[in-house]
Q: What sequence folds into this?
DNA sequence: TTTGAAAGACGATCGGA
DNA sequence: TCCGATCGTCTTTCAAA
């Protein structure tokens, strides 16, 4: 008998359905969720608790219109840093993560070391962010920025098959 | 007198605080939210409704651990398509948006036309996604993929100052 | 694990300030 | 616009299967 359980993310069909529903609408009531899945509310609550405790559900977040946050311009910034040591990587990552303009930081393999996703007021602020703030960091050896015209993201992700 | 209201996203201090709280935890009760902000629950409810109606709050989504969804490998794929017409752009965007591997599609200005953010089971599946599915599309003239080692994203975004 | 029942907490409405 | 009272619904717990 193989021990697969513990705090492992073993997600069955019912868990998957809960995950799907809560990705689509995190604020629907536990009763409505239970009704959709054909189970008792108490069962549903226990499932959601278990998923949360196991780390499968990491949180619930409101999605806010970026223009309402005065962030009409988005861009990607691909960055190369040197030397490519853990200390430099972690320091850079922590620094940019704390900047209010930065939505996300990605540590990459390959040509570029980082990709930053930023959202700012307008092109002037993008430029000043690049020139006045980012380029001040000495570990950066190059960066390229690409303005984002449109963004479409999939809020509801399904588990992929094992294959 | 200038007309600024209507269905415009005029967000005051209280709205900002609500937005901040609901980005951090979308499932907290209306009462708890009201208590944190020092307002009556009925007031809080009305504010949240107004923000939703005005399109400032776009939805509430559970954040799910990608490894639990059997998506241990993430990557960016920068794509160039030709001809660069609206028809081609929209067709490509709609096609990739519907692929289960794709978390997000970005339409870019500059060197590349698109950036795809994908999450798949492993490197083998990334390879087969690129070779067997993506490269089948005739409008693609080139693509480069970068594996993502780490991703850190900021769930709570503040409004930026007007300046 | 799942369930139904019970108790307490919450969402939603509305009249008044 | 905000608030407090009210009603109906919901979350949460728990003992049992």
A:
């Amino acid at each position: 008998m193989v021990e697969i359980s513990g705090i492992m993310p073993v997600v069955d069909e019912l868990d998957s359905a809960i995950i799907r529903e809560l990705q689509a609408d995190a604020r629907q009531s536990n009763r409505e969720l239970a009704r959709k899945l054909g189970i008792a509310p108490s069962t549903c609550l226990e499932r959601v608790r278990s998923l949360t405790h196991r780390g499968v559900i990491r949180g619930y977040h409101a999605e806010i219109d970026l223009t309402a946050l005065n962030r009409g311009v988005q861009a990607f910034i691909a960055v190369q840093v040197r030397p490519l040591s853990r200390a430099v990587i972690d320091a850079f990552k922590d620094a940019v993560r704390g900047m209010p303009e930065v939505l996300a930081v990605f540590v990459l393999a390959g040509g570029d070391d980082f990709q930053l996703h930023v959202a700012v007021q307008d092109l002037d602020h993008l430029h000043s962010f690049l020139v006045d703030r980012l380029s001040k960091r000495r570990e950066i050896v190059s960066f390229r920025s690409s303005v984002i015209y449109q963004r479409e993201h999939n809020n509801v992700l399904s588990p992929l098959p094992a294959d």
User: Anything to note?
Assistant: Residues 66-148 of chain B form a domain with the Alpha-Beta Plaits fold (CATH 3.30.70.920).
